[in-house]
Amino acid sequence: MHTILKSGSKEVVIGIDKPFVIIGEKINPTGMKKLGQALVDGNMEYVIQLAKRQVAWGADVLDVNVGHPQIEEVEIMPIVVEAVKSAVDVPLCIDSNDPKILEAGLKVAPGKPLINSVNGEEKQLASVLPLVKERGAAVLGLTIGEDGIPATAEDRLKVAGHIIERAAKMGIPIEDVIIDPLVMTVGHNSMAATVTLKAIELIRKEYGVNMSLGASNVSFGLPDRHSVNSSFLSLAIQAGVTCSITDPIKLGSSIRATDLLLGKDANSMRYLKYFRATEKLREAEAGQSKE
Question: In the 3-class helix/strand/coil scheme, how is the chain assigned residue by residue?
Fold first, then answer.
């Protein structure tokens, strides 16, 4: 099953038989004071810089989130989307919990974007799925039910099925629904990752849909988070996850290596090309930091 996202002229195909798709996470002011201030100041140069750097480091799609208490998000979202699409030609993921903000971004997003996100709560399904249908977009479905995040893999499967069923009733094809089975921190619950991995396997077997994860959640509160994140993401890719909203700079090499080991990189060409390109980027960025 393939999910196709499009920019103005570029197509990205997400599928279990395709290389893993990286959705760059950096255009999100949560925890990024410099970006937050840039949005408050209307400084799109910094937004463009973040967009270009992520694509250079291997992002296939860019997530765009403008959540900040000091700005009017409905007004800022289309400005940021316009800035990003003027700088890079990759599909976009319009990211907000508010349908009005999603709609504002979708109006100016090129091609076929991804909507981030909907969940299994009736209020969200009723407000977001019509936007997905009207725009002809794909949507990320989080396995959150009316009572929150289910504790078991089986219950997350049920929520995934509910989202897929509701989308189908709206006329949204199953290939345009990407499920996020969610992962909690193993620092709080040592079985959190295994529950997610089991949910991935169940959802893949039952529905065959594409899946995504915010992999960094797994390491929250732990030291050396990079090692935990990269190890978990490799396990999740093996289980059936096909894309992730993540940091292409920190995790790009691990993802390329996992694709290589899973036979998705003939003659190691993609891995070698990535290694050469990022080696040059590191040298260039090191030189800039010394200036």
Answer: CCEEEECCCCEEEECCCCCCEEEEEEECCCCCHHHHHHHHHCCHHHHHHHHHHHHHCCCCEEEECCCCCCCCHHHHHHHHHHHHHHHCCCCEEEECCCHHHHHHHHCCCCCECEEEEEECCHHHHHHHHHHHHHHCCEEEEECCECCECCCCHHHHHHHHHHHHHHHHHCCCCHHHEEEECCCCCCCCCCCHHHHHHHHHHHHHHHHCCCEEECHHHHHCCCCCHHHHHHHHHHHHHHHCCCEEEECHHHHHHHHHHHHHHCCCCHHHHHHHHHHHHHHHHHHHHHHHHHC
Predicted TM-score of the model (pTM): 0.95
Tens-digit pLDDT profile for residues 144-177: 999 999 999 999 999 999 999 999 999 999 999 9
